[in-house]
Design goal:
By secondary structure, the protein is an alpha+beta fold. It has one domain (about 5-105): HIT family, subunit A (2-Layer Sandwich), CATH 3.30.428.10. About 25% of the residues lie in helices and about 20% in strands. The chain contains three helices and five strands. It has helices at about 5-10, 60-75, 90; strands at about 15-20, 25-30, 35-40, 80-85, 100-105. Strands 1-2-3-5-4 form a five-stranded antiparallel beta sheet, with helices on one face. The protein starts with a helix and ends in a 9-residue tail after the last strand. The protein binds adenosine monophosphate (AMP) and zinc ion (ZN). One of its GO terms (molecular function) is hydrolase activity.
Length: about 110
């Protein structure tokens, strides 16, 4: 499948990887919007939140456990951070492989644009 994040997950495209296990991979965003900006993705191709079902929903809790571990390692668990998922056109999703952004080490504005 011609999916850039599947290619990152299987090593066909290089990334600045910060974590990997059998189910997920985390890597620095190529175009960071904060001093810390990484993405966590499942290795399996799931398009978006629209494709979460009873069958695959456990990957989401796993992703949040990985985020919990990584924010501690990066020392932003106390200062705070933002976890973002963009879904579809109006959500601003540009890569159609579900991913969670984690942004930190600066004060983020709210609401988003
Ligand atoms: P979204 O707009 O929510 O779909 O987010 C896609 C994110 O993927 C953007 O923040 C991009 O900067 C990032 N991105 C695209 N290609 C790569 C890549 N090859 N390596 C790392 N991050 C990427
Ligand atoms: Zn994919």
């Amino acid at each position: 499948m011609d999916c850039i994040f599947c290619k990152i997950a299987n090593g066909q495209i290089p990334s600045k990887k910060i974590y990997e296990d059998e189910k997920v991979i985390a890597f620095h965003d190529i175009s960071p919007e904060a001093p810390i900006h990484f993405l966590v993705i499942p290795k399996d191709h799931i398009q978006s939140v629209n494709e979460i079902s009873e069958e695959n929903a456990n990957i989401i809790s796993h992703i949040f456990l990985v985020i919990n571990k990584l924010v501690r390692e990066l020392n932003i668990e106390k200062t705070g951070y933002r976890v973002v998922n963009n879904c579809g056109k109006d959500g601003g999703q540009s890569v159609n492989h579900i991913h969670f952004h984690v942004l930190g080490q600066r004060e983020l504005k709210w609401p988003p644009g």
